Amino acid sequence: MVRMGLTAEKVTGVGAEVADDVGLHRLTMAQVARRLGVQDASLYAHVRSLEDLRGRIALLAADEKTLLIAEATAGLAGKDALFAFANAWREYAHKYPGRYAATQAPGKIDPELAAKAAGPRRAIALTYGMLRGYGLAEPDLTDAARLLRSTFHGFVALEASGGFAHAREPQASWLWSLESLHHLLRQRGIARRGDCA
């Protein structure tokens, strides 16, 4: 019997909370059921498996992270947009580590759910829109988007695992990295405009 008030969305939300608390790789259906005050079997009326739950958490997190980035970058361009974008990304990763991890390794996601999810598509549009502000076009757009993701994810992953043991504050290195990205993107845009002239 389905517990009143229990929905796939509620199970996903609580699953996301548990993932943030214990880590995505330690998330179990039993933990989610305990937090909801139901038997494990009750969850399967709403999500098919742990893998399905992780995929749903990835889509939820993609929506949340994209909204945070959109709000942070609204009306900005160039360096201001890049810094706001990056800082929102890092803020989300720090605040919601389990959800963030789901966005980086989403596993198999139900194709029907993925087709309805706006977050991943909006994330691409936001990223490419910000990069077009530097005058970039394909194939530079794709290369630049991959560079940003690699830089942002690499930094926050190392930061979360305690990988920055040097006395220099990580924040100083973060800002140095963003300045470097800004100059690189600006130069690529200038070079492209020169090629098209």
User: If you compute it from the alpha carbons, what radius of gyration comes out, rounded to the nearest whole angstrom?
Assistant: 19 Å
Structural class: mainly alpha
Helix content: over 70%
Indicate the overall shape: globular
Number of continuous helical runs = 10
Mean pLDDT: 92
Strand count, sense and closure of the main sheet? Answer: none
Unreliable stretches (pLDDT < 50, length at least 5) are none
- State the end-to-end CA separation: 68 Å
β-strand amount: under 5%
Return the string of H and E elements. Answer: HHHHHHHHHH
Give the strand tally.
0
Summarize the entry for a quick read:
Helices cover 74% and strands 0% of the residues. It is mainly alpha-helical.
Question: Could you characterize what this model shows?
Answer:
The structure is a single chain. The chain is 74% helix and 0% strand. Helix 4 (50-73) packs antiparallel against helix 5 (78-95). The longest helix has 27 residues, at 170-196. The chain has helices at residues 8-22, 29-36, 40-43, 50-73, 78-95, 97-104, 111-116, 119-132, 140-160, 170-196. The radius of gyration is 19 Å and the shape is globular. By secondary structure, the protein is an all-alpha fold.
Please tag this protein with its features.
197 residues; mainly alpha
Write the layout of secondary structure elements.
Elements: H1 8-22, H2 29-36, H3 40-43, H4 50-73, H5 78-95, H6 97-104, H7 111-116, H8 119-132, H9 140-160, H10 170-196
